Request: fold
Amino acid sequence: MLSMPDSLEPMPEQAARIAILIVDRPMCLPCIATNVDMSIASVMGYLEHISKSVTVSRSATERCRQCGRAAHTVSIVRDGGARPGERAPT
Ligand SMILES: [Zn+2]
Reply:
């Protein structure tokens, strides 16, 4: 017998996939949705979920690393000290 808890998962697999995709890499919602094969609405729901555990940064001007458009992008900011190898954008 299998029980399927649908509200108690701390970080569902789908949310983890989105998180991995956008760590240090701003991406627009359509590109994220394409990458994980989900609807934009689902992606937004998972982002909400992710933002409870990590810092989700939203930008209206950052370029999407996937399609290159300057759009509303989201990324995960890893905080906690110095970032080795950080360089000024060229
Ligand atoms: Zn994009």
The longest strand covers residues 55-59.
